[in-house]
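Technical annex, item 7. During the second reporting period the consortium partners agreed on a shared format for inverse folding records so that results from different sites could be compared directly. Each record opens with the tokenized structure and is followed by the designed sequence. A conforming record, contributed by the partner at site C, is shown below for reference.
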């Protein structure tokens, strides 16, 4: 009787349902379909370059910052040019 109890306790836990796996696959398929739809709406296809898009987005953000803070950007650029000129003069000595 004691041995039967020990054996009963050692039974393996039930495997996760196959349904769970199907749900994951279904979610992945839905994601892929949504991604494809968005790419089509944006006019990008299979040759879509994510790095190029990141660059374009970053460039647009920088343009916006430059427009909003034009004076600060101008001062920054002037300082950079001044520092570069000073560095070049010291290097020539």
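Designed sequence (site C submission):
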């Amino acid at each position: 009787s004691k041995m039967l109890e020990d054996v009963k306790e050692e039974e393996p836990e039930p495997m996760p349902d196959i349904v769970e796996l199907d749900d994951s696959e279904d979610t992945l398929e839905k994601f892929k379909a949504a991604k494809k739809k968005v790419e089509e709406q944006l006019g990008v296809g299979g040759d879509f370059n994510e790095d190029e898009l990141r660059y374009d987005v970053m460039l647009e953000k920088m343009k916006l910052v430059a427009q909003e803070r034009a004076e600060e950007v101008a001062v920054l650029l002037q300082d950079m040019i001044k520092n570069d000129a000073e560095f070049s003069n010291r290097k020539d000595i």
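DSSP finds four helices and no strands in the chain. The chain has two domains: 1-46, 49-93. All partners now use this format for quarterly exchanges.
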